[in-house]
Each structure stands twice: as C-alpha cells, then as structure tokens.
Amino acid sequence: MDTQPNPSTSGTGNGLFRVAMGLFFIGLLALVAIFAINIFSDTPPGLALYLISLACPVGFLLAIVYTLRAGRRAR
Which chain regions cross the lipid bilayer (predicted)? Predict the structure, then answer.
C-alpha cells in the first residue's frame, strides 16, 4: 500500500480548494444580501455588494481548476 501523500491533492491543492470554496460562499452570501435588501428595503444595494458578489463565479472557476488538477493521474 502506498503511504506517500498524493502531491496533486496535498499542500497547495487543498489551499486552492479552500480559497475556491471561501470565495464561492462569500459571493453567495452577497447575492442573498442583495435580494434581502431589495425585499426588505426601499434603497438599492450598494456597488460594493455587487462587486463582492462577483466572488461567487470566481470561486466556482477556481473549484473547476482544482478539480481538473486533482483529477490528473501521475504516469
């Protein structure tokens, strides 16, 4: 049995996954906040909230990159 860690899923790979998930959830929370402000208030959400919501697709793309990198097998 191979007891050595897989280099594609350890170290920076896990860091990339954590950053991707963090950005995705921050963007998702910003999207929920935008809808909540529109429902419960008469004022429009600020530009900063819209810019923070862009973290959601960035996190999604980083998660795809992580998945593609982790899925490669060493030959």
Answer: 21-41, 47-68
Chain segment 4-18, per-residue pLDDT in tens: 555 554 566 689 999
CA distances from 11 to 6, 19, 40, 46, 49 (A): 9, 13, 43, 37, 32
Q: What are phi and psi of 39, to 5 degrees?
A: -75, -45
pTM confidence score: 0.76
Tens-place pLDDT, residues 23-33: 999 999 999 99
Amino acid at 22: G
